[in-house]
Amino acid sequence: MSTYGVLGLLFLIAIFGFFFGRIKALSSADGDIKKLHSLPQFYGLNAVFLAFFPPLLVLVIWTFAQSIFVDERIKRELSPWILAEQKNINLVISEVDRLSDGLKVSVELGSLTYQQISAKTVGLDGIENILNASGVFLTDDIQAPILAAARLKFYMETLGNSFRNWLVIIGSIIGLVWALTQAKLNFRARPRVEQMILVLLAAAATLAIFTSVGIVLSMLFEALRFFGMHPWTDFFFGSTWAPSFSAGSELSILPLLWGTLYISFVALLVAVPIGLYAAIYLSEYASRPVRAFAKPLLEVLAGIPTIVYGLFALTTFGPFLRKFFGDGGFLGVEWMSDSRSVITAGVVMGMMLIPFVSSLSDDIINAVPQSLRDGSYGLGATQSETVRNVILPAALPGIIGAILLAASRAIGETMIVVLGAGAVAKFAGNPLEALTTITTRIVSQLTGDLEFDSAETLVAFALGLTLFTITLGLNVLALYIVRRYREQYE
Question: Are residues 366 and 277 in the same domain?
């Protein structure tokens, strides 16, 4: 039985437990709900929790641990042959995985049996013929060590999955029986269910934390591998970005950091004034019909995929700028030689960031108490004076937080800068020249060579860790500003 089949069976057992838990509780009270400690649905939910979630946890942990154990065992089996033949271990493991999956397909189609694979009764030629007949594509002739490893992986995974499935199903049945025996007159079902829900909420929060920690640690470990191959002084203090997969790479982050900050600055120059003025108008000046129409229309910009913005920058806005600033354009001087430039990506990215600034700022301005407005009007201030001297200072911490959020979004943007900014890593102040960013280089370095055994590939993790540190610093700065200048109202 597959993993999805086991999950489906767990759902069926849980549904069965819900209805029979209610029936068992009602029967113990002779059908009188008032005699029960809790409502009948809580007895059913207790059966659902005991029959579904502990077995599900076992299923997830077993599957994850089995994958690690099997992969390590296969690597140990193949290590002597890989060293002797000077093979790439990642490519070999990939071939073993593909061949093992092909064996599973052949078993499902009936071309092979589990006994034939485990007993090794079918040789290389027979396996190749059976796989070809089963529609499994082979890139090359199967080698004996790879076939042996694939057979071992198939055997271990099949046996492990079988034990796992039976353990999960039996555990679910035990949980169901236990819940049904608890469904009695005086059982405190509601407190038990509430405790289980609390545990699930705490587990969800913990999972989110561990996911963040795992992402950071994965980048950190790979970045440390990079710094073991490439000097950190060149990465942080060099002035040239020139990767070369042969030799002599110069991998300085500074040109990329300059391009990232420059393009983000241009984007904020576009997004912050337009977004802030739009928020002030919608919250303080616009009538209700205008606000009901304009605010959703403005927020549509946030739902447009970034690839669409990138294509707009590449095919429309960039050529328009080049026509205006190119050869024979403005003042007859060629200011711009390529449609990809800082201003192309920055302006289009600013358009994308407008709803981030306007929507958040609008909510923050609306959160300012009406009593402040009334007090200002009572002192004789006009509406514009009230907005300028009362509302904006009161909403300033939240507005700054919205701007910093938009800045973090701009720094981490990829598709717009890939298509609109170019791929030149250098220091340049002319906004009409092409530059590149950290995210663009991460995409470039991880495209093609995925072996993670060279500094030119591992540098992507160092770039990602640096980018994470920058955005974390922006978030900490936003938190400091909000706490330092926060206005509290009663």
Answer: yes
What's the token pair of residue 462? 């160092």
d(CA 380, CA 90): 75
Q: Are residues 167 and 203 in the same domain?
A: no
Domain CATH number, residue 300: 1.10.3720.10
How many angstroms separate the CA atoms of 64 and 476, rounded? Answer: 35
Does 432 map to a domain? yes
Residue where the block lists tokens 């009663």: 490
**Same domain, residue pair 338 and 438:** yes
pLDDT tens figures, 93-147: 777 777 777 767 666 666 555 555 554 555 555 565 555 555 555 555 567 777 7
Q: How many domains does the chain have?
A: 3
Domain that holds residue 313: 241-485
Are 136 and 212 contained in the same domain? no
Nearest CA to 456 out of 246, 256, 243 is that of 243
Beta bridge partner(s), residue 221: none
pTM of the model as a whole: 0.71
Asked if 457 and 375 sit in the same domain, the reply is yes
Amino acid at 207: L
Residues 311 and 325 in one domain: yes
Contacts (Cβ under 8 Å, ≥6 apart) of 203: none
Positive or negative CA dihedral for 326, 328, 334, 337?
A: positive
Please report which residue ranges of 183-327 form alpha helices under DSSP H.
Answer: 189-229, 232-237, 254-280, 288-303, 306-312, 318-325
Q: 198 and 304 share a domain?
A: no
In a domain, 234, yes or no: no
Residue 457 has pLDDT above 90, yes or no: no
Whose structure tokens read 């140990």? Answer: 76
**Alpha-carbon span 44 to 185, nearest angstrom:** 14
Name residue 241's beta-bridge partners: 251
Tell me the Cα Rg of the chain. Answer: 31
pLDDT given at position 109: 60
3-state SS assignment for residue 242: strand
Same domain membership, residue 346 and residue 204: no
- 383-392, 425-434, 473-482: range with lowest mean pLDDT: 473-482
Counted residue by residue, the chain has a size of 490
Rounded-to-10 torsion of CA 323, 325, 326, 329 = 80
In a domain, 235, yes or no: no
For residue range 46-73, what is the model confidence (pLDDT) as tens digits? 898 988 989 999 998 988 898 888 888 8
**DSSP state, 122?**
S
Query: Which positions ≥6 away from 487 have C-beta within 8 Å?
Result: 394, 397
